[in-house]
Structure formats: structure tokens, C-alpha cells
């Protein structure tokens, strides 16, 4: 047989785990998980707010705890649900409080608890006076409490005060309703005795959601403030409004007591005395007061939890089945720890690298297309270069005379030759760069095809980045080859030229024997410029043959060979920089899918843990 402590403690633990996972009820939509939070029995404290007369909700809670710890002030003070978990400790032990969001801090000073509730409320809602459904969990350990969990909700209000959004009235009501609508919710409806019970906000709401009064506990405060000669027996004896559970009357500290900082323990004793000596309520004394209320609720909560355990278990089992099915559908669960993720990713990179190499080396199609670039595309592009235009008679004349300047050349236009050759060599940059791009896109195409099989956009991006790096290197190398040709011309080639140059002049002299100086005559004639064009063309064609052989060498050296050697190393170095979530990204292309899988896995863990905890409680068997 278990104790009350273990049952309420069990629910407390499950409730805390739910909050950590973001389950505090209210989930809607197709993807919403079953809410375990909503299945857990709770006591929700409901009362009217601010508008006179106030219900005394805060005073009741403080009286149950026996400490002053709730924020007070004008406007809506409670703006987030406060899950108040009370744990009874041994007589004589020190009282302290703990927040779920500050697990390592023990609060001994309850004034600091009040401040932390305010600060933590503001952390989520800002100072905007908005409300938020995200609960604050506060545990109080004290010899002066009973084991009990209460959820303090924002007080029901009728008008928005300054600084609050217009919708606050409906917002609060709908938040309170998400709690009190649930059949597992025990409603602690607090109303002041100096107000007509028919107009109590708390009772009106309770009547609506729990018409038979099965799960409502009516609490009447401020009995001491009733007009002389009147009493609240009509309500307390259940004649004004009948509930299944007896009404409990309360006498809290007055405002004057609060101002005086009157001791809570003393207040409890005074309350006891009030009922013991009251001519009106004496016959009900043993069932009145905040201490009695706390014990009554604790006992009731325990019995409700006991009765609900089978249905909670069946919800948990059903949810476990659903989650396991969904995880199956989502595919193999991602290895949760970073080590396993890293292993999987490296395996994937190795497989990718191996197949990629096979494509380049032969054995798989791909490498032959790179050869096609060198054997067909590059020679064709070289052939198409516009040397005819560059070396047209007109262009040669212009370039040579520009190079000569004011002093025409005497024998051979050295500067003119250089300018013509430099200009022509510049055209080689285009085919050189195009070869690099073609090889790069073939490598990338191969890589992407391979990566697609592995379903990882991240891997594709990593391959792309590294191939891009190789492409840049390769481009620099081929451009350097072209620039080297411009930087130093092969003098040997031109040394052979004078003899050849003479040949047309000799032929000329045979035909025009009477001509006084044919060579001199031709020095600035068209024939002379045509010869220059033809010499330059021959030189450029020699360079073209060289580049046709060296460009492929540079591409293979910088791109293909590097891709084979360094792609895997590049993956390794990139991956070792990543951690946690980023590793997960490498494994899967869809962050939404990944998120859902993680959520499902966490939920599954929560449900399994909850099932184990419930199973561990002896009475279930
Ligand atoms: N004399 C007397 N005063 C009470 C009683 N209950 C509450 N009060 C006073 O009523 C005022 C409001 O009490 P709270 O406990 O703050 O009431 P609340 O419903 O939480 O109201 P807000 O804090 O304004 O939301 C305080 O001055 C209390 O001292 C009671 O039973 N008797």
C-alpha cells in the first residue's frame, strides 16, 4: 500500500516532466500530442479578481501554505498559472521553496519567492501585463503543509485595467476554462461571504462546467466581514448553492493584519478560535478553516488520483503505441548522442568518397565525360578563338603603328609583335576557365547524384563547398599557365623567322628586277603586315598546342586529383567543427521532420518513464 505522499508526489513528478517538454495542456491541431498534463488530476484555484469585493484567493493559498509568498498589488498580479506543490517535511525541519526553472537554488526567504514569481512572470509575459499559459512550478517543503498540489490561475476579471490589452478579460476566462473544463480538474471556487453567492464569478463558472457539483469545492472567505446580525449558513450548509462536497468557510488575515505583518501561524490559530467560539458556525467548527480545507483537498486529490490511475495508464499505453508507430513511419530514429551521429555521418562520407572515386577512375560512368572535356570541348573552343579578326590586316596595322608611336620601326616591329601576341594570348583565358568549370560541374553532378541517394542536403553542400574550393585553385593555375606564356615569349621561334622572311622578298626581286629596293618598298606595305600577322598566328598556334596539353594537366592536378584525395579530409574537418543539432542536420534534410522525430522521441521517453513510475507504485497491482 502506498502513502498519499507517493501518489501526489508521483503526479508532481510527471507534471514537472510535462512542463519541461512544453506539455501544459491546450495542444490543438493535427500534430498535437495527447496531453498527459490534462489527464493528471489537479486542483485549480478560481476566484474573482480585483473588483470589490475581492475573493481572498491569495489569502487562502497563503493560509494553506502558512507563509506570505504571493505577489500582491493592483491590476492582474497572477498572469501565469502557478503550480504550487506542497511537500510535508518532518516537524522541526527548515521551510524552503524551490522553482523548477531554478533547480539548484533553495529559497529560505519567502519575500524572495514572491519576487521570483514576479520576475519569472515578467520573463515570459514581459512587463506588458499579458497573460501566458506557461506555468511556473513552485515546490514548498515545510512541516506546516499537507501534501497537496494546487494551481493558482489568474483571477477572473470583468474589465481591463490600464496598460492591459483589451482582450485580457476573454483571455483569462479561456485560460481558466482550459483547466476547469477537464474532467480531471478539481475546482476550488473561492467567493467572499460579503457578496451574494449568485453573483460570484467562481461559482458561475463552476456551475457551467460542473453542473452536478461533483468536482467543485466551494470556499467562502471573509466570514468575519459580514454585516452584524447576518451569517453565511445558507451557503455553508449548502442551501443557497448545492455542491457534492461540503462548503468550507475561511477567515483570513485582514488588510490590517497584513500591514502589521501578522504571523501566519498565529492567523491560523485565530481562525480556529473564531470558528470554535462562533455562535453561528460553532456546530460546523471541525469542518471549517484553512487547515481543514488543505487536509480535505489533499485527501480528495489522493483518492481522485487513485481512481484515475487506470485511465492515465491506458492513455500512456495508447500514446506509447501511437508514438512508436509514428517514429517507425518517420524512419530510423536518429542516433540521439553526438558520437553515434558522428559515426553515421563519417560512414556516409566514406561511402560517398569511395563511389565518387570510382566514377572518376573508371569502373563507373563519369570519368570518361571529364576526358571528353579535354579531348573535344577544349580543342573545339581553342579553334573558335577569333584570331582571324585580331590578326586582320587592318588590326595588325593599327596595333603595330600604335606600338611604334611617333618613330616607325626600322626593320622588325618588336613592340608591335609583342602587343599582337599579348592580345592574342589573352583569348586563351576563356577556354582555360571554361574547361575548369566544365570539369567542376561534372564532379559536382556526380557528387550530387551520389548525395541524393544518401538524402542529405548538408552533405551536398559540403561537397559543393569543397569542389568550389578546388575549382578556384584550378582556375588560378590555368590562368597562370596563360599568363606565363605572355610573360616570356619563346625567342627561338622568332630566330628562325628572318630566313623565312627573306623568301618572299627573293621571289619579289625575280619578278620585279627593275625595282630599286623591293625590301625597302615592302617595309610599310600590306605584304609586310601580312607577314607579321602570319608570324604571330604561327606563334599563337604553337602556344595553343602547348595549352591544349597543359590545361588538362592543371585541371586534373587541381580538381580531379584533389577531389579524390581531399574530399573526405574536407568532410572530416568540416564535420569535426560541428556539434549536436548541426550533426543532426547532416543526417537529414528536413529540419521539420527532424524536429518532429526528436519531439516524438522525447515524448516517448516521458511516457515510458511515467509508466515505469506508475508501475512502481504497489497498489496498482
Ligand atoms: N477580514 C478579512 N479580510 C480578508 C479575508 N480574506 C481576504 N481578506 C482581505 O481582502 C483583501 C484581498 O485579499 P486577497 O487575498 O489579496 O484577495 P484576492 O482575491 O487574491 O485579490 P487580489 O489579490 O486583489 O487578486 C486583503 O486586504 C485581505 O486582507 C478574510 O477572510 N477576512
Automatic annotation (TrEMBL):
<keyword id="KW-0342">GTP-binding</keyword>
<dbReference type="InterPro" id="IPR022812">
    <property type="entry name" value="Dynamin"/>
</dbReference>
<feature type="domain" description="Dynamin-type G">
    <location>
        <begin position="41"/>
        <end position="310"/>
    </location>
</feature>
<dbReference type="InterPro" id="IPR027417">
    <property type="entry name" value="P-loop_NTPase"/>
</dbReference>
<keyword id="KW-0547">Nucleotide-binding</keyword>
<dbReference type="Pfam" id="PF02212">
    <property type="entry name" value="GED"/>
</dbReference>
<keyword id="KW-0505">Motor protein</keyword>
<dbReference type="Pfam" id="PF00350">
    <property type="entry name" value="Dynamin_N"/>
</dbReference>
<dbReference type="InterPro" id="IPR001401">
    <property type="entry name" value="Dynamin_GTPase"/>
</dbReference>
<comment type="similarity">
    <text>Belongs to the TRAFAC class dynamin-like GTPase superfamily. Dynamin/Fzo/YdjA family.</text>
</comment>
<protein>
    <recommendedName>
        <fullName>Dynamin-related protein 1E</fullName>
    </recommendedName>
</protein>
<dbReference type="Pfam" id="PF01031">
    <property type="entry name" value="Dynamin_M"/>
</dbReference>
<dbReference type="InterPro" id="IPR019762">
    <property type="entry name" value="Dynamin_GTPase_CS"/>
</dbReference>
<dbReference type="InterPro" id="IPR000375">
    <property type="entry name" value="Dynamin_stalk"/>
</dbReference>
<dbReference type="InterPro" id="IPR045063">
    <property type="entry name" value="Dynamin_N"/>
</dbReference>
<feature type="domain" description="GED">
    <location>
        <begin position="529"/>
        <end position="621"/>
    </location>
</feature>
<dbReference type="InterPro" id="IPR003130">
    <property type="entry name" value="GED"/>
</dbReference>
<dbReference type="InterPro" id="IPR020850">
    <property type="entry name" value="GED_dom"/>
</dbReference>
<dbReference type="InterPro" id="IPR030381">
    <property type="entry name" value="G_DYNAMIN_dom"/>
</dbReference>
Amino acid at each position: 500500500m502506498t502513502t498519499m505522499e507517493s501518489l501526489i508526489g508521483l503526479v508532481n513528478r510527471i507534471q514537472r516532466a510535462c512542463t519541461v517538454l512544453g506539455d501544459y495542456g491546450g495542444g490543438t491541431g493535427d500534430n498535437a500530442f495527447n496531453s498527459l498534463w490534462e489527464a493528471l488530476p489537479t486542483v485549480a484555484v478560481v476566484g474573482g479578481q480585483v473588483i470589490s469585493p475581492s475573493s481572498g484567493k491569495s489569502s487562502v493559498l497563503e493560509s494553506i501554505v502558512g507563509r506570505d509568498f504571493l505577489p500582491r498589488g493592483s491590476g492582474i498580479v497572477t498572469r501565469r498559472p502557478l503550480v504550487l506543490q506542497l511537500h510535508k517535511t518532518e516537524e522541526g525541519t527548515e521551510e524552503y521553496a524551490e522553482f523548477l526553472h531554478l533547480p539548484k537554488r533553495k529559497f529560505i526567504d519567502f519575500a524572495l519567492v514572491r519576487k521570483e514569481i514576479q520576475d519569472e512572470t515578467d520573463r515570459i509575459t514581459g512587463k506588458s501585463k499579458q497573460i501566458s499559459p506557461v506555468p511556473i512550478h513552485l515546490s514548498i517543503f515545510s512541516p506546516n503543509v499537507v501534501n497537496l498540489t494546487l494551481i493558482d490561475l489568474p483571477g477572473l476579471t470583468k474589465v481591463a485595467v490600464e496598460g492591459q490589452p483589451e482582450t485580457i478579460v476573454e483571455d483569462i476566462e479561456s485560460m481558466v476554462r482550459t483547466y476547469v473544463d477537464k474532467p480531471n480538474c478539481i475546482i476550488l471556487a473561492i467567493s467572499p461571504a460579503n457578496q451574494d453567492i449568485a453573483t460570484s464569478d467562481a461559482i458561475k463558472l463552476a456551475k457551467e462546467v460542473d453542473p452536478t457539483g461533483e468536482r467543485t469545492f466551494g470556499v467562502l472567505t471573509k466570514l468575519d466581514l459580514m454585516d452584524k446580525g447576518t451569517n453565511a449558513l445558507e451557503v455553508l450548509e449548502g442551501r443557497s448553492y448545492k455542491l457534492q462536497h461540503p462548503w468550507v468557510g475561511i477567515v483570513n488575515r485582514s488588510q490590517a493584519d497584513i500591514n502589521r505583518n501578522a504571523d501566519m501561524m498565529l492567523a491560523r490559530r485565530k481562525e480556529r478560535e473564531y470558528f470554535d467560539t462562533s455562535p453561528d458556525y460553532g456546530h460546523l467548527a471541525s469542518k471549517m478553516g484553512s487547515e481543514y480545507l488543505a487536509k480535505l483537498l489533499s485527501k480528495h486529490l489522493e483518492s481522485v488520483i487513485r481512481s484515475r490511475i487506470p485511465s492515465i495508464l491506458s492513455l500512456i499505453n495508447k500514446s506509447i503505441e501511437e508514438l512508436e508507430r509514428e517514429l517507425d513511419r518517420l524512419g530510423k530514429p536518429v542516433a540521439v548522442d553526438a558520437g553515434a551521429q558522428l559515426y553515421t555521418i563519417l560512414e556516409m562520407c566514406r561511402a560517398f568518397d569511395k563511389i565518387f572515386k570510382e566514377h572518376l577512375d573508371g569502373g563507373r560512368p563519369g570519368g570518361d565525360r571529364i576526358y571528353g572535356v579535354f579531348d573535344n570541348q577544349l580543342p573545339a573552343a581553342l579553334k573558335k578563338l577569333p584570331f582571324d579578326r585580331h590578326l586582320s590586316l587592318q588590326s595588325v596595322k593599327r596595333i603595330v603603328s600604335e606600338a611604334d608611336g611617333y618613330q616607325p620601326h626600322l626593320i622588325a616591329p618588336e613592340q608591335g609583335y609583342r602587343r599582337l601576341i599579348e592580345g592574342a594570348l589573352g583569348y586563351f583565358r576563356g577556354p582555360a576557365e571554361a574547361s575548369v568549370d566544365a570539369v567542376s560541374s561534372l564532379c559536382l553532378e556526380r557528387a550530387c547524384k551520389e548525395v541524393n541517394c544518401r538524402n542529405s542536403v548538408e552533405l551536398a553542400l559540403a561537397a559543393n563547398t569543397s569542389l568550389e574550393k578546388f575549382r578556384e585553385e584550378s582556375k588560378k593555375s590555368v590562368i597562370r599557365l596563360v599568363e606565363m606564356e605572355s610573360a616570356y615569349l619563346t625567342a627561338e621561334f622568332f630566330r628562325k623567322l628572318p630566313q623565312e622572311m627573306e623568301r618572299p622578298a627573293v621571289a619579289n626581286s625575280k619578278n620585279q628586277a627593275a625595282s630599286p629596293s623591293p625590301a625597302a618598298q615592302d617595309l610599310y606595305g600590306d605584304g609586310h603586315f601580312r607577314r607579321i600577322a602570319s608570324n604571330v598566328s604561327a606563334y599563337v598556334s604553337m602556344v595553343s598546342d602547348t595549352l591544349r596539353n597543359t590545361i588538362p594537366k592543371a585541371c586534373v592536378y587541381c580538381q580531379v586529383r584533389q577531389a579524390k584525395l581531399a574530399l573526405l579530409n574536407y568532410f572530416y574537418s568540416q564535420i569535426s567543427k560541428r556539434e549536436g543539432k548541426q550533426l543532426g542536420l547532416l543526417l537529414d534534410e528536413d529540419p521539420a521532420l527532424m524536429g518532429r522525430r526528436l519531439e516524438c522521441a522525447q515524448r516517448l521517453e516521458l511516457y515510458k518513464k511515467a509508466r515505469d513510475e506508475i508501475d512502481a507504485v504497489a497498489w496498482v497491482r
